[in-house]
């Protein structure tokens, strides 16, 4: 089903598509705000254009469907339904009224360290589930981190598993995929990689939360890799450095280690001192100041 057809007939399955709220950069999928026809429940519907998917992306879609259909966790986007219609697969997931983390950062700029820590604690709680299922996301970035709302009970949700795959301990992947500003240097350099690529992405997200901008940039991927490899000190804003707790800086440095041996593993990240402080709110919603 093509988008121009949907503009004339906005009902698919049991859902009425109301408005487009997102589209993948490679035009392989579109996300719609929708309503269930009988209950009126508001949901998000991800429309995947199957005919555009290569073998690798079809495998990723299978991983996404299998994983999301098997989990129910407050920090992972909830899958309600999935069905096929007219050469498309539709994934019906919970609608997050708070938008994504990228929009939040653009609107508010850098966040206080305490807020960043609470975000990372919730992100870690979701990633614990991925880790237990031997799933690597491979596209963790602010655009794929959703917020349940903008009120006092914000819950962070890991979303868009369209590049995910199963990877067991001791094994490696080789497919280059992800978003360059959040991709680990080993992926950018076409090297094989393991689950630590997600830890690099988490480090980039933490850095951007604290500073309001990503840790590395470049005119192209070659320049980006060169900037990463030549970096002696992370480009923290001098406005925030004096107020950052040493545990926060330590986590950032160890997540954004270009040397994978020195980079935090998931378990080291999850049990790091920076996250263990105020750990009682690990799974609890929180207020964003």
From TrEMBL:
Domain Protein kinase span(s) in chain numbering: 15-275
Xref: Pfam families: Pkinase
GO CC annotation terms, alphabetical: autophagosome; cytosol; membrane; phagophore assembly site
InterPro entries linked to this entry: Atg1-like (IPR045269), Kinase-like_dom_sf (IPR011009), Prot_kinase_dom (IPR000719), Ser/Thr_kinase_AS (IPR008271)
Keywords: ATP-binding, Nucleotide-binding
One GO-annotated biological process of the protein: regulation of autophagy
Signal peptide range: none
Molecular function terms, GO-annotated: ATP binding; protein serine/threonine kinase activity
Source superkingdom: Eukaryota
Function: CIPK serine-threonine protein kinases interact with CBL proteins. Binding of a CBL protein to the regulatory NAF domain of CIPK protein lead to the activation of the kinase in a calcium-dependent manner.
Protein's name according to its UniProt entry: Protein kinase domain-containing protein
Protein's organism: Citrus clementina
């Amino acid at each position: 089903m093509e988008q121009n057809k949907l503009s004339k007939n906005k009902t698919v399955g049991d859902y009425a598509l109301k408005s487009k709220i997102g589209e993948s950069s490679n035009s392989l999928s579109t996300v719609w705000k929708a309503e269930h026809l009988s209950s009126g429940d508001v949901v998000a519907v991800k429309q995947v254009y199957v005919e555009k998917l290569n073998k690798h992306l079809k495998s990723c879609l299978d991983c996404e469907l299998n994983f999301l259909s098997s989990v129910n966790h407050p920090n992972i986007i909830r899958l309600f339904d999935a069905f096929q219609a007219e050469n498309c697969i539709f994934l019906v997931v919970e609608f997050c009224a708070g938008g994504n983390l990228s929009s939040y950062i653009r609107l508010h700029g850098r966040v206080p360290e305490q807020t960043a820590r609470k975000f990372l604690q919730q992100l870690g709680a979701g990633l614990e589930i991925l880790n237990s299922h031997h799933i690597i996301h491979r596209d963790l970035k602010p655009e794929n981190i959703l917020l349940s709302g903008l009120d006092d009970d914000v819950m962070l949700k890991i979303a868009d598993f369209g590049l995910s795959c199963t990877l067991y301990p001791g094994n490696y992947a080789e497919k280059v995929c992800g978003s360059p500003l959040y991709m680990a240097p080993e992926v950018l350099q076409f090297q094989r990689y393991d689950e630590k690529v997600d830890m690099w992405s988490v480090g980039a997200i933490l850095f951007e939360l604290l500073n309001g901008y990503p840790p590395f940039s470049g005119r192209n991927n070659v320049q980006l890799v060169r900037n990463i490899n030549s970096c002696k000190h992370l480009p923290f804003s001098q406005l925030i450095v004096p107020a950052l707790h040493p545990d926060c800086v330590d986590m950032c440095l160890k997540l954004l280690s270009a040397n994978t041996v020195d980079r935090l593993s998931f378990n080291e990240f999850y049990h790091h001192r920076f996250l263990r402080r105020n750990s009682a709110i690990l799974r609890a919603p929180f207020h964003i100041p």
